[in-house]
Amino acid sequence: MGRLVGVDLARALAVFGMYVVHIGPPLSATDGVASWVRYMADGHSSVLFATLAGFSLMLIAGRREPKTGLAGRQAKARIAIRALVLLALGTVLAMEYGGVIILSFYGVYFLLALPLVRLSARTLAIIAAGLALVTPQVAYVLTTMLSESVQQSINAYDPLKKLSEVGVLDLLLTGFYPTITWMSFVVAGMALARLDLSAPAVQRRLAAFGAALIVAAYGTSLLLAGKGALRSTAEDGPSSGGLQMSGSPLLTAGPHSGTTFDIIGSVGVAILVIVGATVVMDRLPRLRRLAKPVIAVGTISLTAYVGHFLAQSTLSLPAGTSEQKSWVPLLMFVLGATVFAAVWSRFFRRGPLEYLLHAATKPAKYIR
Fold this sequence. Notes:
70% of the residues lie in helices and 0% in strands. By secondary structure, the chain is an all-alpha fold.
């Protein structure tokens, strides 16, 4: 259970990172340690979410050994149902809160990941690497070819776009979390799930690998693009295809720049967080007991994610990047989510939305 508790802890950290981005002060209003915290949350928290989403897919499909036969077909049906539910839920939330909602993108990620759930860790890692190397360049070419008039023509016939800010073109290419580049994170998470994260040798290799990815990606970007290479683009709003379209767009590595350097470096960060959380939970049982309330947030991450948007709306706090400079609202949201998760988990196995999502997948058991 230690390795799964570590994953739950990493998921809680991703939730809190999203709170920092959506509720905390903007990067321009921070300095010192606060600036570092805000920078690490920008982009990296959503990438950690996407990587853990790929990990979760393999929990359904068979983590160390893929399910086959009837069990395999039912697992794929459960994933497909989850994808459709998340796509619908994300669209509903986007109608109110705009393009920053990631859930509808998750729906597309899950559907595209279905053919990959039986592959080995090595094969998945190769696919993730290939996507990271190729898709940013493809996305850049496609977005430069798509004029505003062409995009408007496509969106005019898109029923999703008529319902919310997030249409098919946004989901695939031009949104805040475009599938074309973000599938790298999902597939990387699937590859991680195939490994024995509780094995010390695996932990050491992954930690070294994650650190190497960070140094290689961000170091090379700094050399090629200069000091502005790591600038955060999260506060600029959704950009075309997720790519920063000014300066040296394919050489930067800032959060949400959508470049090869950004993808590789962000995967490295996600690996270190997941491995670090796993090691801490495995080797420090006393800390694991103390961290139970935080770990509980990770077990109800969907509820915690959706809930913070609803709470923002109820409290009339601005969605997206906050203009205020106080950290108090953020701390209150973190405390509120932790207390709610701790109390809820004492009585229920799943969070409210997690229970509904699980119930929605029950028809998969009738697949033959």
